[in-house]
Amino acid sequence: MVFCAAWFAGLCLVLVETGGAHPGLSREDASQVLLRSRRHYQAFEEFKQGNLERECVEEVCNREEAREVFENEPETNYFFPKYLDCLAQQSITSKQIRDQLWKTSRVKYRLRKCVTDLPNQCKPSPCHIPGTKQCIDLQGDFKCLCHTGWKSKTCAQDVNECEKQNGGCEHYCINDVAGYMCGCEKGFALRTDGHSCEDINECEMPGACGSADCVNSPGSYSCNCPWGFFYNETLKACFDVDECTTKPCEQACVNNIGSYVCRCDGRRSYLLHPNLHNCTKMEPSEIWHPRKDPTALCLIPQSTAKLTFYISFDLPSIMREILAFSIRTYDPEGLLLYTRRREPEKRSLAVALRDGRLEVQLQDGDDRVVTTGGPIINTGTWHSVVVERLRRQLIVRVAGEEVININRPDDAQKGTSRVEIALGGLTISTPSLIRPLPLRLDGCMRHLSLLEQDTSWLSQHISENPSQQCFSAIELGAYFSGSAYVHPRQQNYSGDVGDVCESNPAWNLQLAMDFRTMQAKPHSGLLFALVQGSEVPLSLALQPTDRIAMQAVQITTGNDLLLKITWVPDATWHSLNLSLSSGLLSLKLDSRSLQLPVPLLYSKHPSPPVQTFFGGFSDGVPIEATPVTFPFHGCLRNVVLNSEEIEFPASSSPKVTSHSCPTQGQA
Prior knowledge:
Number of domains: 4
Shape: rod-shaped
Structural class: mainly beta
Largest sheet: 8 strands, antiparallel
Number of strands: 45
């Protein structure tokens, strides 16, 4: 059965091949080869080992004859199918076999070469040439001796050295045809041993990080920027991070180079929370309130558009009219009270202060009289005043002493007429005064007696309304209780021509003032500022320091700090001087002073309009424009700006008392 399987396998191979380019044996010829009778050899041929030349070249052999030549099955099984291929390649037909004509032709020569090569298993070599050192004939088999890096019977399969212990490589192994190589991770280089890796210090490469800091790490490196900056890979530089784009603050955010700060609207009594992001509203109990006198009426109205008091009643004609009151003020000029009778003939009386002395403006019909006299009474102490109008004269007494006496013709009136009395201003319908003067006066009245009428209701009203009461004790100074004063005139802050250049003079600012806070603890508040549109080119403000219980006075431009002086806070008066001239900024607090050259900052001409603020900002100034928007809570005095003495009129703001600085403790 083994012989038959091999025989038919050989036959099938012959039939397949003859169907190709070579004609080969026909089915009939192949059958004759397979079925021909065994020849009778001569005696020496029967006993000696079969000779391949004689059996299969000189004659056509069958498998049995080939077996007698090789004397083993493996070589026979290998030889005989290929022998049939040789016959087919030489186109040996059955007729040639019978006539044996082919023996004398060149076919015999070609057949010999084909047949004699067949027993050598290595001709042609079955081994993969690139992977083979040598092919060894094993009589029906062969052995391929492989080069290093190759395996399999024919040395055609590459050996993957990386499968065993990663090829001895530290990082990774790369298999290659007949070999391998070691590789390293990014940021490492292969050492000379070909297997281990060492870190590459990229920071030693020129310009690795540009202007950023280069930090080497195993297998990598990083380009680091300071906090608040980000690194641009393309430009190899650090750029500021605008943290405000993420809206980290509750109210307002100001981006700085490398950082940011949150701001709260101090004008609405908001303070920055200790977490530096949120805002907390100051409780009313946290705000300092001066002690008030429940018996004294403040002549400054709560609104600039209103009077402090207006009284109207019908009064019959009497022989004597008396107006009595006590007055306390440091204000040198302003209206105290105004009375008028409408019928039968217009008669008015205005009592005021001018240059610290009492002034009376009297009108009877077309007759007008203005008289000023008496001692200076704007001393900050109480003075009793009595104005008595008789039929033929008007007498004014201060502390019982007559200081004004106006003789008039007999002006006795009959009947009843409407009497109007205005305190702390005039009604809209009231005609202007005979001699103009301010309609507001920062002062206090008490013990009022008005034409012998009942004024107990007025005293009760004052006692029930602290907002209309006066401070219990005062000293000279303008008191700011949370409001801003805007200087009404445009100031000239240009320096002398030639400070910087003739066509573009620099800033010139000279400011002197005394200030006092109301409590001996750190205080935040604006003292003085210049505003151009939505920008604040200069701000002078009080600000608590990072150190506990320390107060600072600082100068800023925009959000940039220029100068700062610190001290232990107290509730006493301090002298403050600010100077900006020829590019030099100076700040002096009492005996301590600092200077800073700022030639570029203030080298340009201060283009108008420049608004001047004292004590706080108006709503038009953005919170982000300057560090301190909280209004100043304290007193100012002796304020001189560029040689001009600054007064704070009582009409400027209902929350600014121009001449009354409270001295007693909190109520």
